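Notebook, bench 3.
Goal today: get a predicted structure for 3-methyladenine DNA glycosylase from Nonomuraea longicatena so we can plan the truncation constructs. The sequence was checked against the plasmid map this morning, with no discrepancies at the termini. Length recorded as 292 residues. Pasting the sequence as submitted so the record is complete.
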Amino acid sequence: MPEGPLDVGLVLRPYRHGAGDPTWRRSHDGAVWRTSRTPDGPGTLCVRVHDTTVLARSWGPGAQWLLDTLPALLGAADDRSGFTVHHPLVEAAAREFPGLCIGRTGRVMESLVPAVLEQKVVGQEAFRAWRLLLRQYGEPAPGPAPEGMRVVPEPEVWRRIPAWDWHRAGAEAVRARTIATAAWHAAKLEAAPTSAEADRLLRALPGIGVWTSAEVRQRAFGDPDALSVGDFHLAKLVGYALTGQATDDAGMLRLLEPYRGHRHRAALLITLTGLRPPARGPRLAARDYRAF
């Protein structure tokens, strides 16, 4: 397990896609439940901390794989060497959240599909599509998982989803086609040995650019430098937190250049401060392609 403090909820939170994510739950006792389609098949993992001890149980064909990879999921392979703070706000955030580690799932498709669904739409719209697709095409979670938990489908299932079911979920043809195309290449993507190679493979596919690749590599590979360039909010948040003024992607890259190698880590710490630029207008509403 990672050395030093560990905040299990904080480390596992990036794998949750919306409050109703069928692959992620947090129970009243603080335990985090998570499902995954492992190389050995579907599995359910339950992780809790008692005092300073991490306790975990797993179920399903992928149960042993989930236990074997649990240290990496919780950030044991997260190398913070070379991370030096260059701003008082980042230093304060690092002190406030010492249990922040960047974990890795080792599974690409389960991060790629929600990332594609989240392209250029508000979160509510993407999370709704993720829930609806998982409820219809995901497998029931093995073991005594909380009610309604599902396991992401196999790649061939993503390829076979008909156009009308994508439409009913609220995902238009472009995102549906991107996911189906990626599913054809799932074996190669899952076998990528490094984050850099995964970036090359992902961005060679139509519909996948810098932002989507970064979102996947943050989760599947625990890449501390995979910065989400192109995010609707991130550049504004980083600029406002570090300078008092919102900025664009080019400005964010300049501000985070001193953190190269750990730009995603620095951005994570900045977002955890909760600092936000003042709202300038009404929030975007979720669209519903099912009405079109």
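The mean pLDDT is 94. The beta strands are 24-26, 32-38, 41-50, 53-59, 139-140, 150-151.
Flagging this for group meeting.
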